[in-house]
């Protein structure tokens, strides 16, 4: 059942309490490979469930628009100071509600509608808020994009420089959501300086690796760094903006009153707790293990004939092109979910298929690493993925997955996974039945 226990919720609203327990159990019994997800500690869970949710605090510590900030001010100050210390930044704003508003605040701080931005194209591994045509950032600004090279699956910094010199963007964004290789922040900074652009580093996916020393930091290179707090960083759902002292004021004004109202104080407290956890020596081991596990999983998948974009990974994330397996990402992801392996279908660079039914899968190691799984288990996981993808390919359609033969085979794998995971405790769940 869910831990901490929710007896009052169970009494007041058994329907929702039942669903909370069901989700806790689902998370316990599945191999969770969505690279942007994790398991937070019980301390972080507790912080998110406190009376801090009752308080409005528009403004910043010492300058609020509501009374009664005697406790909230120190909480937000502690969170910001911990963020600055952990990442070595001059300034931290811990109020953004999540990654998209954090990025939007940066646009508001530095750009006016119609300005050009240079960022990674969404189908190449970028993010919606990096100028996708369906996002406000693509509708109100003028995005130009870089991608990866077809032969290498990697960003070529000469290509980025060439586009920047041609298009003269006002802002360059480094980072994305499906990048399996090291992001060259220093090279991005050099290009940004050359063309007089602001550099925004979106390190949402890799913030925990940066904190744990397993990926080079963008701090010291980028003018502004945006990050969510709930991915590899292993905090509550939220976000932060880090900046140089020069940009502190304009960033703060953009977040509030520019874009948002009152900060979510229970989230701020939980961010502070997560940042304290991330500053402990054990977090360095976690970050190193995240990368080691992703690489072990990648090797085991390559041995089973899977085609990895860029041939492997430097970080927590793997992008698999399933074209050679004769099955689409969507059918494979659905089959894997039934088999107890949770990941997401994803476009691969130069994907000929549509985003809602693309050629690839995106997977990663943060959550399984938090559970304590290691290199040996990564080989088991690769075997199960291989088996489930083969079932999906034989079935050939979503409808056929529920027929007795594929469904039985997928249920067999799910049973083996449940068995394995009983040996790996999960914060947020206690086995009771
Ligand atoms: N939705 C996040 C991800 O899964 O990568 C990005 O915002």
Write up what this structure looks like.
- The structure is a single chain.
- The chain is of the alpha/beta class.
- It has 2 domains: 46-278, Type I PLP-dependent aspartate aminotransferase-like (Major domain) (Aspartate Aminotransferase, domain 2); 282-421, Aspartate Aminotransferase, domain 1.
- It has helices spanning 7-12, 14-29, 42-48, 72-87, 99-110, 136-140, 157-167, 185-195, 207-211, 248-259, 265-278, 281-303, 329-338, 366-371, 375-395, 404-421, and strands at residues 31-32, 59-60, 63-64, 91-93, 116-120, 142-146, 171-175, 198-202, 224-228, 239-243, 307-308, 317-321, 341-342, 344-346, 360-364.
- It has a 7-stranded mixed beta sheet with strand order 4-10-9-8-7-5-6, with helices on both faces.
- The N and C termini lie close together (8 Å).
- D-serine is lined by residues 36, 99, 127, 177.
Give a quick set of tags describing it:
433 residues; alpha/beta; Aspartate Aminotransferase, domain 2; Aspartate Aminotransferase, domain 1; 2 domains; 7-stranded mixed β-sheet; 4-stranded antiparallel β-sheet; 16 helices; globular; binds D-serine
